[in-house]
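Sequence in, structure out.
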Amino acid sequence: MKTYDYYRVDLEVAMRTSDTVFGFINVSHIPYNELARIFRTQMLALRHAFLFQDSVGYRIDEELYQSNKAYFDQEIPFKFDFSLFEYTISFSGCYKEEYKQNYKQELPPNWGQLTQPV
């Protein structure tokens, strides 16, 4: 496995009825030990000694979701709908020089001057 400078864990949301990926939700804030606990059965079935071995993703089906519902609902800002979507947790990495900043470091102009919601 390559060693990168930055790593990211995403929840991939895909339409059940097609190969279309609806989007990705960054869930990198979830500790690795929690992901290993949640996906332990899948890791054992794949004979993985460690999380994301072979860069494989792990599926969240309705049964797995229900057994971890309180944790998922607390940590993932998304309403799961198993009638429309399929869910996979995936892992990616990149080198520092390839990283594209995906955040701003300052507020928009005049942000502090707003007195009413827009």
